[in-house]
Amino acid sequence: MTKTIDSMSLVPQGSIGAYVQSVNQFSMLTAEEEKELAERLFNDGDLDAAKKLVMSHLRFVAYIAKTYAGYGLPQADLIQEGNIGLMKAVKRFDPSVGVRLASFAVHWIKAEIHEYVIRNWRVVKVATTKAQRKLFFNLRKAKKRLGWFSQEEVETVAEHLNVSTKDVLEMESRLNGQDQSFDLSDSDDEDSSYAPVQYLEDKSADVAVAVENENAESNLKSKLYASLSQLDERSQDIISSRWLSEPKATLQELASRYNVSAERVRQLEANAIGKLKTNINFE
Fold first, then answer.
1. pLDDT for residue 10 is more than 70
2. Which of 41, 160, 173, 232 sits at 20 to 30 Å (Cα–Cα) from 199?
3. DSSP state, residue 200
4. Tell me: the pLDDT tens digits for 31-40?
5. Is the omega angle on the peptide bond into residue 247 within 30 degrees of 0, that is, cis?
6. Nearby residues of 64 by Cβ (< 8 Å), 6 or more positions away
């Protein structure tokens, strides 16, 4: 009996055993049936043919996903990601090449599962480059026992995977790293236990005081510039050049600019500062 594709088939829910039993009910295709369906899809865009190709290979995806159980990730999610890879493969399958769909699809299925494992196996990514990803999955297969590699095993794996011993040791360290809980658990003592959340809050800082100080500084600046605008043009230039500019002008430079003595500039500066203080305090 032919079954139509549905979300329940592509997204496992409930018991994985029940899901596997369900997808095993879809008949496997002969080479001739598969080619005929693939040609209908490839040449005519027949979606019903695509559905039949996908459904007949769901058991194949479940089998592949089972081989990734050692990463501690939900089996249902692994199957779902594999099913995405299967659908991508069916969409791109060319029956004229002369290979079976399973042989073509296995690479797409594994690629999607690999991406999912890399994204979720550790909060801090264990592998980011293509070379690291290859080492990640091969090292997991090569590690037959618990515990750290001996030097001899490191050298053997490095030679087998054609990488340096340094790369092997670094990836092994990542694989053996333990995830740190962000929050304290209910049973943890806050004084004797560690969690990153404890270090987010700066308890030495008072937000209210910080905002108050910022507002006061802003208000003071506004008063300063308002008072500065009330001075004559020469006094404004002297104050700006001496106190509000970088580099600050010297008394002699300003004396040359206005063709007066340095002492006269100092007097003008002192007089302007006095007026600014008076205006700011008055306001």
1. no
2. 173
3. T
4. 899 999 999 9
5. yes
6. 82, 106, 109, 110, 113
Please tell me what DSSP assigns to residue 96.
G
Q: Which residues, at least 6 apart from 162, have a Cβ–Cβ distance to it below 8 Å?
A: none
Contacts 24+ apart (CB under 8 A), 70-75: 70/140, 71/117, 71/121, 71/140, 72/121, 73/116, 73/117, 73/120, 73/121, 75/12, 75/16
CA-to-CA separations, 207 to 166, 182, 196, 212, 216, in angstroms, rounded: 47, 24, 21, 9, 14
The answer to whether 27 and 55 are in contact (CB under 8 A) is no
CA distances to 4, 24, 83, 120, 128 from 114, rounded to whole Å, are 28, 24, 13, 10, 12
pLDDT at residue 146 tops 90: no
Cα–Cα distance list, 67 to 8, 62, 93, 114, 141 (Å): 22, 9, 24, 12, 11
- How do residues 207-261 score in pLDDT, each as one tens digit? 566 666 677 677 777 777 778 788 888 888 888 888 877 888 888 888 998 899 9
- Which amino acid is it at 85? G
Kindly report the number of other CB atoms within 10 A of residue 192's CB atom.
6
- Find the mean pLDDT for residues 59-64: 90
Tokens 């001996």, residue? 150
* Cβ(132)–Cβ(138) below 8 Å: no
Mean per-residue pLDDT over the chain, rounded: 75
Cα separation, 125 vs 123, whole angstroms: 6
Is the model's pTM score more than 0.70? no
